[in-house]
Design goal:
This protein has 254 residues and is α+β, with helices and mostly antiparallel strands. 33% of the residues lie in helices and 22% in strands. The protein has helices spanning 8-15, 24-45, 49-62, 66-78, 82-95, 104-115, and strands spanning 119-124, 133-136, 139-141, 150-152, 155-163, 166-175, 180-184, 211-218, 221-228. Strands 3-2-5-6 form a 4-stranded antiparallel β-sheet, with no helix packed on it. The protein has a 3-stranded mixed β-sheet with strand order 4-1-7, with no helix packed on it.
Length: 254
């Protein structure tokens, strides 16, 4: 079913008479909101639903008006966003002026039809820890969301559980109109980081020791191996040459 701007004549008249501005900044905001409102109406006429939604949303952010919500809901319904369209219709009903009350019944009928297109997910997370954060499509959920079905627009959604900076669980699902689906999200703990001790320890370069000791762990036992730094050092004192005898040059003597 296509959703056209059935209140077009009404909203055009309302847009032509915006609320009075308060100060220069308010004048600018009102003029911009009026321009965006007009762009939204043109987009509705051309069935450019995304452009219409964006224009009405921005217009309402600048100057909130019930008639803007009414047209925003039309665009949202055309984009198959029934949950958001219902929210806009209900906001219009709550804020409607006396002159706008004649459109409340039409909004209520639209809500009844849109509710049949809403999808629901029953979310269960058995291993949820106290500090975990639940996110649905980049929006944080409270723990109360696990107690009853969550109303969603049809289409693709992402459920994410963050444990600190670690993603403890994530799932993507695609819902169709009117569907109710149960979803249990299994969490996985963060990886355990094990620090392995170094196997080789070297002597400080500034040390006066003349030997390098290599520690090798064998069954919990550390064996120290001393390696002589200088070869051919003779025992004894004085400046006399070491006794070589008949051995050739470069031979280590005792």
């Amino acid at each position: 079913m296509r959703w056209r701007a059935v209140w077009l004549a009404f909203v055009v008249g309302a847009a032509a008479n915006p609320a009075p501005a308060l100060g220069q900044d308010a004048d600018v905001d009102t003029a911009t909101a009026r321009r965006l409102f007009g762009e939204g109406l043109e987009a509705l006429e051309d069935e450019r639903w995304q452009d219409a939604r964006d224009a009405f949303r921005r217009s309402h952010e600048l100057v909130p008006r019930p008639n803007t919500l009414l047209n925003l809901a039309t665009a949202q319904a055309e984009l198959n966003l029934p949950v958001r369209a219902i929210e806009s219709y209900r906001a219009f009903i709550a804020q409607a002026t006396r002159r706008q009350r004649r459109h409340v019944r039409e909004a209520e009928r639209a809500i009844a039809e849109l509710q049949e297109r809403v999808a629901y997910v029953e979310l269960a997370i058995p291993d949820l820890a106290s500090g975990d954060q639940i996110r649905l499509d980049d929006e944080e959920l409270g723990r109360e969301a696990l107690l009853e079905p969550i109303a969603l627009d049809p289409g693709q959604h992402t459920v994410l559980v963050m444990r600190g900076e670690h993603t403890a669980g994530e799932v993507q699902l695609t819902l169709v109109e009117g569907e109710t689906r149960g979803l249990e999200l299994a969490l996985h703990p963060p990886p355990v980081v094990v620090e392995t001790p170094a196997l080789i320890e070297s002597v400080d370069e500034d040390s006066d020791d003349t030997a390098l000791f290599v520690g090798v762990g064998v069954g919990g036992t550390v064996v120290a191996i001393g390696i002589a730094v200088a070869l051919g050092v003779a025992l004894g004192q004085g400046e006399e040459e070491p006794f070589v005898g008949n051995l050739g040059p470069g031979t280590v003597t005792f």
